[in-house]
């Protein structure tokens, strides 16, 4: 027997559908309203441009007191995202605030794609490459985007 | 109502009608100091709001050494006579939500006053204080005339500074029918409600603010949402400034301007919201309404001391304190043993209801919770609420005294047990002998200065009780054996059964099989 879904999650879900953010979508599963299939487009002008990245997002029991759990399902070459798709983003950890929401988190992730931060790496190898040979790193990121993140229709 | 007391959520909100109560509605947003609609309102720590510009001058505060922050060294004397305290300058931030709500209202009113309507409202000022009428100027009551419906006209004279806060208005009949005026005012109010609606939603629960409290930085949340937020982080969820609220949140006054405004404007929403929260907190009617703490073993009539640090359990304890102060204590099922109909759940399904006698919060957010065991129960169903377990439980009670006696008579009349049959021997002992066996054991152990019977332990649990029904609970509380073994007392239905369990422990200890 499941506890009723908090009003907050219902409203957030409604607003995500009714006032969508360009380049971002999040759809809850029919059988689990706390589990979302997320799609984020690589920002224009970045080495992820043209890519469509799939993520999974889960709202834990005490959401919004704790941050959503979120990870990339699509492979991505990025210094702040590891091989398991985990994301190093302050607002998902210490800087989470219950006044943030799914929408703002996804926007932050999209912004992270536009501004990789090799100084605070989660993926050491990628971060090293990024610092030592940025041109090469960006080229790899473009190749991975074309390889793994081009929309399959 | 005293402004110091926090407003009850259970009260039913009484709405104000835009036409009949136009004067009262406008007063809700008037500054008590300048009588104009509040501009850049500051909600003070006492819950009263005043225009930022209407705050008295700041002065240096005397005898303040902690916390030593520049903004706390200066203060203002509260202009509200029912408060009259000194508020630190740092606590006088502009109230963000109230500002936005007032801006919405001002915007709509401005649109309506751009052009004349078909209605004229004539307002005669009623001074409450008779002595003022003796002034030369005010021999005749002041008359104001505006080419708009009542609500707009009343707001306008307030905005022009022509409506003192305390004054009432006698609306003098004008050319239009009252029905037309009523309809127009209803439309104006509806516009305001629609535009204010999103502003007055709580940023955490996304519902309209219930019992709002405002931080020194001017941010507002429902009291319960604020309490949950500070359980997790001592920073304002909106601006991340460090908050000093937590230890006194329960006494932090509500934002009375917002409460009065919301109750007057959204009476149905506010009433149903208060009811919904009340139901939510108890988890529905008679069903999954018992908060459960899966932690340790507790016994009836025995104290259990807990250090609570996880936010979810702090929330649970706080809700307990606000309701009947009881929660169910369950032991963790570390070996995953099946628990009746529930299967191998993470707790043992028999537990003890604990009553919170004292909860001492510490500045770091943890608390020391003192409890007293009330009664035993069994979990029939369980779920999760905001991260902690809740359940529907049934009490576990002893059989009647008549049945207890019958059982004793039956067992003591059995033919003698064989030599070496310890359990059989215990079965045949009278209830009184079983109790004496325990008491005697305790005396002998005290004679040998057993560690588990030191004064410090007795200070907490008291001397062994004479009541045979309770002795085993006391004994289990002090005896250093495994919790899984002690747990056997919880499902028992007779005094004898419990005493036989304690007797078996004693025999095992004596034969040094432990
Ligand atoms: Zn003022
Ligand atoms: Zn005050
Ligand atoms: Zn709230
Ligand atoms: Zn703030």
From TrEMBL, chain A:
Residue span, UBC core domain: 4-150
CDD domains, alphabetized: UBCc_UBE2N
PROSITE patterns the record matches: UBC_1, UBC_2
SMART domains per record: UBCc
EC number(s) on file: 2.3.2.23
Active site residues per record: 88 (glycyl thioester intermediate)
Segments passing through the bilayer: none
A molecular function GO annotation: ATP binding
Superkingdom to which the source organism belongs: Eukaryota
InterPro entries: Ub_conjugating_enzyme, UBC, UBQ-conjugating_AS, UBQ-conjugating_enzyme/RWD
Keyword ATP-binding: yes
Record keywords, A-Z: ATP-binding, Nucleotide-binding, Transferase, Ubl conjugation pathway
Pfam families in alphabetical order: UQ_con (PF00179)
UniProt record similarity statement: Belongs to the ubiquitin-conjugating enzyme family.
The name this protein goes by in its record: Ubiquitin-conjugating enzyme E2 2
Native organism: Neohortaea acidophila
Automatic annotation (TrEMBL), chain B:
Domain of life (superkingdom): Eukaryota
Record keywords: Metal-binding, Zinc, Zinc-finger
Spans traversing the lipid bilayer: none
InterPro entries reported in the protein's UniProt record: Lon_prtase_N, Lon_prtase_N_sf, PUA-like_sf, Znf_RING, Znf_RING/FYVE/PHD, Znf_RING_CS
Positions of the Lon N-terminal domain: 287-510
Gene Ontology MF term list: ubiquitin protein ligase activity; zinc ion binding
Boundaries of every RING-type domain copy: 202-240
Keyword Zinc-finger appears in the UniProt entry: yes
Pfam families per the UniProt record, alphabetical: LON_substr_bdg (PF02190), zf-C3HC4_2 (PF13923)
Protein's UniProt name: PUA-like domain-containing protein
Taxonomic lineage: Eukaryota, Fungi, Dikarya, Ascomycota, Pezizomycotina
């Amino acid at each position: 027997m499941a506890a009723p879904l908090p009003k907050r999650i219902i409203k957030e879900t409604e607003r995500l559908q009714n006032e969508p953010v360009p380049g971002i979508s999040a759809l809850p599963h029919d059988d689990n309203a706390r589990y979302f299939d997320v799609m984020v487009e690589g920002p224009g002008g970045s080495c992820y441009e043209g890519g469509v990245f799939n993520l999974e997002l889960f709202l834990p029991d005490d959401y919004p007191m704790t941050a959503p759990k979120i990870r990339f399902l699509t492979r991505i070459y990025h210094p702040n995202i590891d091989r398991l798709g985990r994301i190093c983003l302050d607002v998902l950890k210490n800087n989470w605030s219950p006044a943030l929401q799914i929408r703002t988190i996804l926007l932050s992730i999209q912004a992270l794609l536009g501004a990789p931060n090799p100084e605070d790496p989660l993926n050491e190898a990628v971060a090293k490459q990024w610092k030592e040979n940025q041109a090469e790193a960006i080229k790899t990121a473009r190749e991975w985007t074309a390889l793994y993140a081009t929309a399959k229709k | 109502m005293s402004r110091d007391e926090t407003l009850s959520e259970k009260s039913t909100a009484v709405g104000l009608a835009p036409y009949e109560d136009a004067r009262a509605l406008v007063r809700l947003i008037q500054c008590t100091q300048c009588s104009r609609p509040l501009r850049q309102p500051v909600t003070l720590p006492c819950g009263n709001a005043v225009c930022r510009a209407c705050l008295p001058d700041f002065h240096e505060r005397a005898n303040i050494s902690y916390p030593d922050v520049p903004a706390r060294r200066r203060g203002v004397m509260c202009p509200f006579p029912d408060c009259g305290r000194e508020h630190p300058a740092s606590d006088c931030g502009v109230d963000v939500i109230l500002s936005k709500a007032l801006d919405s209202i001002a915007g709509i009113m401005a649109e309506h006053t751009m052009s004349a309507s078909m209605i004229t409202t004539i307002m005669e000022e009623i001074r409450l204080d008779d002595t003022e009428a003796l002034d030369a100027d005010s021999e005749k009551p002041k008359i104001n005339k505006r080419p708009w419906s009542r609500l707009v006209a009343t707001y306008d004279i307030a905005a022009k500074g022509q409506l003192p806060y305390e004054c009432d208005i006698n609306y003098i009949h004008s050319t239009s029918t009252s029905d037309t005026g009523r309809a127009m005012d209803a439309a104006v109010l509806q516009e305001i409600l629609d535009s204010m609606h999103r502003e007055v939603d709580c940023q955490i629960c996304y519902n309209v603010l219930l019992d709002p409290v405002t931080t020194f930085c001017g941010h507002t949340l429902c009291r319960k949402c604020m309490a949950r937020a500070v359980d997790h982080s001592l920073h304002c969820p909106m601006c991340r400034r460090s908050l000093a609220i937590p230890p006194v949140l329960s006494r932090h006054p509500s934002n009375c301007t917002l409460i009065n405004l919301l109750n007057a404007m959204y009476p149905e929403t506010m009433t149903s919201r208060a009811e919904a929260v009340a139901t939510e907190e108890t988890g529905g009617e008679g069903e999954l309404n018992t908060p459960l703490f899966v932690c340790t073993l507790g016994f009836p009539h025995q104290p259990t001391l807990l250090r609570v640090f996880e936010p979810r359990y702090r929330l649970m304890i706080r809700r307990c304190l606000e309701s009947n102060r009881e929660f169910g204590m369950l032991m963790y099922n570390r070996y995953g043993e099946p628990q009746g109909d529930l299967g191998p759940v993470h707790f043992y399904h028999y537990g003890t209801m604990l009553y919170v006698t004292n909860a001492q919060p510490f500045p770091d957010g943890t608390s020391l919770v003192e409890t007293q065991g009330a009664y035993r129960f069994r979990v029939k169903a369980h779920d999760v609420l905001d991260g902690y377990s809740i359940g529907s439980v049934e009490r576990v009670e002893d059989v009647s005294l008549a049945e207890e006696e019958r059982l004793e008579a039956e067992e003591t009349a059995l033919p003698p047990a064989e030599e070496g049959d310890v359990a059989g021997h215990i079965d045949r002992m009278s209830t009184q002998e079983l109790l004496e066996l325990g008491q005697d054991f305790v005396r002998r152990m005290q004679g040998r200065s057993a560690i588990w019977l030191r004064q410090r332990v007795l200070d907490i649990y008291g001397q062994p009780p004479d009541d045979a029904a309770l002795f085993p609970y006391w004994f289990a509380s002090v005896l250093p054996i495994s919790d899984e073994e002690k747990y056997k007392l919880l499902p028992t239905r007779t005094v004898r059964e419990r005493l036989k369990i304690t007797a078996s422990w004693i025999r095992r200890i004596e034969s040094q099989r432990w």
